[in-house]
C-alpha cells in the first residue's frame, strides 16, 4: 500500500479513541459491524491508491480545457476514478437505506473519504460535491425531485454542484443578482426561468457524466420587477444541465460555460464561470435556464447552509488529509535520506536525517498539525452521528455548530503548515516537481479560502456561535475539556500536560466571559480571527490530550502510544503559549488594525 495515511492511526481514532462501536448499537446503524467498517476502509485504501493516486501528478499537469462545443474536457483518468468510487458504493454509503444507501456512520464515511482526499483531492472534489448536493435535495426536495435529481447521484449517473458566488458578490450572498421568474409548474414542481452568472463553481462543467445538477441561489423577481434585498429573499433552485424533452430524450438547458478559472492547486477540478439564461439555448421555446424551486421562496439560504456546512467539514477533512500525506512523505524521506553525522568523527558514515534533533522537531510539529487536524474533523463527524442517534442530540448539535468554523479553518491553516514543513524536510528536492510535497502544498493553499475565508469563519465563530449563543455551546465544550483534564491527571506522565490545558481553558473562558460582558459587540468582532486562532488551538490541545489518554488505555504498540503522548506534550509546550497573545488582543479590544484609515496602507 502507498503511504497515504497511517492505517494504525485511523483504526486507533475510530475504535480506541472515538469508540465507533458505541454508535453501532443504535438502530440506525444496526447493519454496520466492525467487519463492515474494516472492509470499507480497506476498500477506500485500495481505490484511493489505484484509481486516485495513479493520476495525481498527471491531473495537475493536464488541466481541464474548454472544447469547441463549449464544454470542458478533463483527464480521462479522473472520470475513471470517480466511476470506481461510485461503483464501489461510496456515493451511497452515508445515505439512508430508503434511498439505496449503506447507512454507515458519518464517522466511518469521513475516515474513508480522508484516503481519497489524501491521494488526489482534485478528483475527490467531484464526488464530495455530488453527495452533498444529493443530501440537500433528499432533505428538502419533493419525492419527485429526490427520485429525479438525488438518487441517480448515488449511483454515479450524474454529479452535482453548489452555485452561490457571483463575480460582483463573492462571499456576500446578500448581493447576488441571479434572477428567477415563475414559469408555471410541471411534474417536478414549481418551474422558474433563471438568468445570471455564477463564479468559482467547482465541477460546474465536465465530461464525467452526461448530466450535472446545479443547486443555484437566486432571487425571485417581485411584482414590481425588483429583486428582494438581503439574504431573506434568496431562494434555492435545482437547475440540471439536461432536461427531459417530453419525447423520451433530453435537451440542453440554457447554461453556458463562460470560462475556466486556473488555480494554483486542485488543477484537476474544473472551476468555472457559468452563465444561466444567456440565450444560447431556449428550452421549451422560452428564455432563461429552467430551474425547479426547492421548498418555498425565500428559504434558499437556510437550506443551502446544510450543504455549506457539510462542505466546510469536507474542506477541513481535505486539508487535514493533504497535510497528513505531506507529513508521512516527510517522515519517509527523513528515514531514507542520509546526510550529516551526529558525532564529531568526519570519517563516520552519514546518518538518516531523522536522527538530527532539528529534523525531529520539524516532524513532531508536522505530526501535531496533521494528526491533530484529522482528529478534529473526525470528532466533528462523530458529532454529526450523535445528532441522529442517542440521548444527547441537542448537545451534539450545539457542539457541532460551535466547532464547524474551527473544523474548517484550523486544518486549512495548519494542514498547510504541515505541508510547508514537509517541503523543508525534503530540502532542495522539496520544491521540485519530482516530489509530491510541492503539489500538496499548492493544493492545500486553496483551503483557507474554500467555503469561506478564515476571516469569515472567525466572524461566524465569535459572532454567531459564542456571543449570540451567550456562551451556551461554549459551556458544553468546557465541560468536555474538564473531563479530559481529570482523566489525564490519573494517567501516567500526563500531569503537566493536564495542568497546561487547564490553564489554557481558563484563559479562554475568561476571555469569553469578558466579551459576553462588553457593551460594544461590534468592537469585539475586530479581533474575531485571533479569537478563532486561540480557540482552535485550545480545542486541538484538548483533543491531543484526549488521544494521549486513550493511547495509554488502548491495546497499541509502545512506539505508537509514545508518539501520541509526545505529540500531546509537545503541542501544549510549544503551541499552547501562542494562545495568550491572541487572547490579549481580543480582551483588550485592540483597534490597531481596525482604526487605521484606508489611505494609510
Helix content: 40-55%
List segments where confidence is low: pLDDT < 50 over at least 5 consecutive residues: none
Instruction: Please give the CATH class of the largest domain.
Output: Mainly Alpha
- Strand element count: 12
Q: How much strand content do the residues show?
A: 5-15%
CATH architecture annotation name of the largest domain: Orthogonal Bundle
Overall geometric form: globular
Using the coordinates shown, work out and report the CATH topology of the largest domain.
Butyryl-Coa Dehydrogenase, subunit A, domain 1
Query: What's the Cα radius of gyration?
Result: 25 Å
Fourth-level CATH superfamily of the largest domain? Acyl-CoA dehydrogenase/oxidase, N-terminal domain
Domains, number: 3
In what order do the strands lie side by side in the largest sheet?
A: 4-5-12-7-6
Q: In DSSP terms, counting alpha (H) and pi (I) runs of 4 or more, how many helices?
A: 18
Cofactor: FAD
Family: Belongs to the acyl-CoA dehydrogenase family.
Domain Acetyl-CoA dehydrogenase-like C-terminal: 479-596
Protein name: Acyl-CoA dehydrogenase
Keywords:
601 residues, alpha+beta, Butyryl-CoA Dehydrogenase, subunit A, domain 2, 3 domains, two-stranded antiparallel sheet, 18 helices, 12 strands
How do the strands and helices of this protein lay out in sequence?
Layout: H1 7-17, H2 21-24, H3 34-52, H4 56-61, E1 65-66, E2 72-73, H5 76-87, H6 106-140, H7 143-154, E3 158-163, E4 179-186, E5 189-202, E6 211-220, E7 234-240, E8 242-244, E9 250-252, E10 255-260, E11 271-276, E12 289-293, H8 300-336, H9 357-386, H10 393-426, H11 437-445, H12 454-467, H13 472-489, H14 495-516, H15 521-524, H16 528-553, H17 558-575, H18 579-588
Parallel strand pairs: 3-6, 4-6
Antiparallel strand pairs: 1-2, 4-5, 5-11, 5-12, 6-7, 7-12, 8-9, 10-11
Helix pairs in contact: 1-16, 3-5, 3-6, 5-6, 6-7, 6-8, 6-9, 8-9, 8-10, 8-11, 9-10, 9-16, 9-17, 10-11, 10-12, 10-13, 10-16, 12-16, 13-14, 13-16, 14-16, 14-17, 14-18, 16-17, 16-18
